[in-house]
Amino acid sequence: MWETPLDHPLRRLFAGYAECTFQQTFGVADPPLIDYLSGLLSRFVHADAIHRLKDAAGRRLEQVADMVAETVDLPAGGRGTREIHRHIGDFALFWTGVYPEALKHFRAVLQKDFFIDYCNQGKRSYFLASQFDQEPYREEAPVLRRLADEFEMCAFGLTKVREEWEKDRGGPIGRVIGVS
């Protein structure tokens, strides 16, 4: 739905930042992981992709607690359950890694997410999504499992990716995502 083609300039730009950052910071050279993370960054440029999950009445789900609640009535082995868990993992990783300062707002006392640990929920959701390891998810399942196992490292890596693109405020990324 919101997947950006691998050859799209924005995706290539994010891939370059992610590849360089993860190799230099962690010594991680993992093309499937870098592809996933650059896809996440380019997909979440669209606010509609960040908030793509809706409740039964069609309202946007903006809190992780509400997203998790949506999984309760879905069949455990269904594609919808996998997609919701994958999205929860992506949502938690994006905010934890790219914009951690926003977590203060999401986890305010009067919000349902006050009780949610974004790292633990992101890990749990990626793990659950990784359990769908048959076609057509066979290739992505190990990446989701790695995200579950290495959530904190990936979040820190995305923080470093953001620092790199912010250094380039006047460059192409700054103009595209409006940080110039």
The geometry reads as globular
Question: Major beta sheet, specifics?
Answer: none
In the residues, how many domains can be counted?
1
Question: What share of the residues does DSSP label as strand, in percent?
Answer: under 5%
DSSP strand count: 0
Detail the poorly predicted runs: none
The helix-strand sequence is HHHHHHHHHH
Specify the structural class: mainly alpha
Radius of gyration, taken over Cα atoms and rounded to an integer in Å: 16 Å
Helix content: 55-70%
The overall pLDDT average reads: 87
CA distance, first residue to last residue: 28 Å
- Helices, by number, come to 10
Topology:
Elements: H1 9-26, H2 31-43, H3 47-50, H4 64-70, H5 79-97, H6 103-106, H7 118-130, H8 141-149, H9 151-167, H10 172-177
Helix pairs in contact: 1-2, 1-9, 4-5, 5-7, 5-9, 7-8
Quick take:
The chain is mainly α and 180 residues long. It has helices at residues 9-26, 31-43, 47-50, 64-70, 79-97, 103-106, 118-130, 141-149, 151-167, 172-177.
Verbal overview:
This protein is mainly α and 180 residues long. It has one domain (9-177). Helices cover 61% and strands 0% of the residues. The chain contains ten helices and no strands. It has helices at residues 9-26, 31-43, 47-50, 64-70, 79-97, 103-106, 118-130, 141-149, 151-167, 172-177. The mean pLDDT is 87.
Keywords:
0% strand; 61% helix; single chain; mainly alpha; 180 residues
